[in-house]
Amino acid sequence: MRWSALVVVAVAATASVGIVPATAGATSVSAQLTGVSGFGSFDDRLDCGTEGGAGDTWRYEWTDQLASDVTGVLAGRWNGTFEVHRAARGAFVPAGDGHLALTVAGPGGHSGTALFDTAGSGSCDDAALTLTPLEPSDPTAQLMSGALPVVATGGLGALRGLTGSGAASLTLELTPGADNAASIALAGDFDVPDPAIAVASGSARWANLTAFLQHRLTVTVSLANAAAAGDAFDVKVTGVSPGSVDGVPTAPATLPAGAATSQSFVLRNASPGHTYNLSVIVAAKDGLLAAQAPVTGTVKVKAPLLP
How far apart are the first and last CA of the chain? Predict the structure, then answer.
């Protein structure tokens, strides 16, 4: 089971497309998942390893529980299901029979859902998890603990296309009722599609007569993210050359795939009628809030003769 949970008055100008950054690579992320309302079912089955026997089986789920991450990358709510089998010694979750969905909703439109499956070779002969009885009179009441490998199986929103692998250290209460606790420490190296920011165009204007007299030219650049790219966060102009500028770095913006925005700065000591070729450097982060390689583009703008 899975759940899924974002006009500037201008004169003639030109721009060269910014350099698309190289792939940033996997990002190490972690989250602490806690749950207090797990529930499920228990099947009394033939002993694990006997003919047709899969061992006593617990199928439990947690919905809309808290996920904490100090970086904010995976902070939000989580849902999960696990199928736990008792073996002669220990317990196991068959590969693919554990599922996690983490839904995040952070500042700046950083929202999406990350999907994970458990992996490994869990079986009657490979039971690395521990079962600890919780009620002497009820053999179905157990505490399961241990670690499982996990793989990312995609995502939605800012986390679409999620790939990578890691591990989950789990402690799950498996008892009758709907108040079973869960504690899961999830960590791994994951990746999402990179954004592809380009410096698309530029324009220039005198904001007012005072700016004209002070030779302070407002330059506006248009930034675009490719339609097939990943979402971009914390997008801002961080450098301009040549010349002396105010207003850099610019205020951060969010650019989903296929979106565009404009950002402005002030070029000091500008002259009316003069043409400027400006190299503009842009910074951005991907859907895992990992910094991308800077993008550089050139805009050619001409200062108007009058405000």
Answer: 62
